[in-house]
Amino acid sequence: MMSESVIAAYLAASLALGAAFKSKADTIQGFLVANREIGNWLLAFTFGATYFSSVVIVVGGAWAYMWGQASLIIPVFNVVLGALVTFILLGQRINRLSRIHNALTVPELFGKIYSSKGLQRLLGLMTAIGLTLYAATVISGAAAMVGTVFHLDLATAAFIIAVLMAGYVALGGMYSVVWTDTLQGLIMAGGIAALLAISLSRIGGIAALGAAKPSLPLEKINPRLIFDLALLTSVAVWGLPQLVNRFYTARSPDIVRRATGIAALFAFIVTYSSFLSGLAAAELLRNNPPPDPLKAIPTLANMVLGPVGAAVFSGAVLAAAMSTADSIALTTGSAVVYDTLGIRSTRALRVASFLAMIAATAIAVATLSLPKELADAVTTIFRTGWTLTAGAFLLPVTATVLGARSREAVVASAVAGAVTALAYGVAKAARIALPLADMSFTVTIVASFAVYVAAYLATRRQ
């Protein structure tokens, strides 16, 4: 009963926030970038909550549970490259460029810098495809949590979550996303930090983690895979439109600068708490390991938090999933209507954002109804959405913001990154062995970089 009450109250608060900001989101600029009036604390929290979904809590904890201290390179990269460097290297520049060109989306910024509507449409289409694939996996995770708590089948739970998220995004646009992200970020950080603190008290303090042994034998731990995941969960942030677009909302470049430390602190709390909880789980669950490593963090929560604490923690996991999914809904809706179709209407944006979430949910539910082996293959392709989007945008965003500009290089590297990422995803789903399959993100970025440099040099010679 406690879990039901906590989650029901949280969902109701999210919907209320969306309704509260409806009037402020009646213009295109209000709907897409919150009229560029977001302050430093809100910017830091909405960035962090969008960055870290339930994956970092449940899956990140599982990685630490399986691989032990070798996995701690991932939170280091998350804090330094994913938060600090993103704000310092890109944040202020992106905010300034978006103002100079009066751009409201990432594809539109490229379209205006390179004077190309076609480029804007291409990048809008890539955004819509990649993020819809990724949204399907995020919704599945949120639905699993709600379905478990309320004893609903996965399809029903998925559509309830989707309608609620789509509702508050469609009502308040970026305003509701920013404020619900802040609420979700507070719940997420508090929940995972509490789990770590209580777990550490059970094993004798943080020093005891040094003796925690990974659940996998050392010979089964793959350092290349761990390094690739560290890059994927940190450097990828530089090319994800739903995160890059956050810098558009700040009142000024100075706001971005002032938010840098807050964002890094948020990243530190969430990612280190998740991974260190995974190490604690390896110690506390040693004599009674869960059947699946992905159950390590939920099992730990049930063990150490009690009914009330477990209810709050389940709300934290759900908040982490929703704070990512709602941003994806807004970004996908704008990519289809605003960037690809060129429609400038808040009503169309509301409808598109709503439908984007429902469509992703329908895809997720349809996949879950497939035979298990086929469903696993399709889900693998969905997870490629993060890599596909980052692969398409990372080099173009970084090079353009830093001043190395070439429209031909942007198009070539975006296509190369997206195709490489998709090829690895399909190959993995079909169980086809490709070279360096355990470093697919690294290969994707190297391929995109090589193509960008080649195209850039070719255009300079002309």
From TrEMBL:
The chain crosses the membrane at residues 6-21, 41-66, 72-90, 122-150, 156-178, 185-209, 221-240, 261-280, 300-321, 351-369, 381-402, 409-427, 439-458. One of its GO terms (molecular function) is proline:sodium symporter activity. It is a multi-pass membrane protein. PROSITE patterns: NA_SOLUT_SYMP_3. InterPro entries: Na/Glc_symporter_sf, Na/solute_symporter, Sodium:Solute_Symporter. One of its GO terms (cellular component) is plasma membrane. GO terms for biological process: proline transport. Keywords: Cell membrane, Ion transport, Membrane, Sodium, Sodium transport, Symport, Transmembrane, Transmembrane helix, Transport. It is found in: Cell membrane. The keyword Magnesium does not apply. Belongs to the sodium:solute symporter (SSF) (TC 2.A.21) family. This is Sodium:solute symporter family protein. The lineage of its organism: Archaea, Thermoproteota, Thermoprotei, Desulfurococcales, Pyrodictiaceae.
